[in-house]
Amino acid sequence: MQVSLLVYFTNLSYFLYFLILYAERIQSLVRSIRKGNPFTSGLNRYMYGLTFLSLSSTLIYLLIAGRPMFIGLFTRDAAVYAPDHFLLLGIGAGILLFSGMVHTEFTIPGLQFGAYGALVAAMVLQTVETEPTGAGPWLTLAYIVSYAMAIPVVYPSEIQRKRLFHILESVVSFLMIVIFTGMLTGMLPPFHLAFLLFALIGDSVVLAMRWKEYVNSFVLIFLVLTVVLWLVVFGRPYALIYFLA
Predict the structure, then answer these.
(1) 137 phi, psi to nearest 5 deg
(2) Are 100 and 55 in contact (CB under 8 A)?
(3) Is the pTM of this model over 0.85?
(4) Beta bridge partners of 154
(5) Does residue 61 have a pLDDT over 70?
């Protein structure tokens, strides 16, 4: 038996996400190290340390749990795709995302957005394959994507309380990645109020502290969209199930 083309292209989209983001992060690390010692401050030690740990963990994880993804590039044999195939890839996507949410030197935003576009494409294809009809699945997808886009990238700042700011933005970014990964894999209920409140409060603090230095309109727009989508879904009959889960 063979899996559908949708399943095949979902697997391919995950592969492109891993390939593009991994390559972009590697080039940033290599060029930064060639330029000089990148571990010159506490924030840099966190950003480069997390990037290295994320890349190393992703490589090990994919070699252990992600081998069917590579095999699936060349076949549609259903035996390759275990029932938890995309669950495992979703976990791997979250592990790699930690490296993408810190702004190391020589970051190439275009490549990063290309990788995230491939991940979103995988999410869309999974929705089409599993739940193509009804507004619920598509609102859920839109909410999860919006939540992911509202994750703040850890940037260096020169505001007066920059040390406190760096700690707060790192914590907010890290925990939102964990929450997003849980939503992506279905291990966490996406519309739980606690996750929305954490994003709302965390992003608001990060945005407010750096407001005079730089207004992160991208995060602000998607934070507002996340809140709007939550309110839209919460008004629907099935939303209470997500909230109480």
Answers:
(1) -60, -35
(2) no
(3) yes
(4) 102
(5) yes
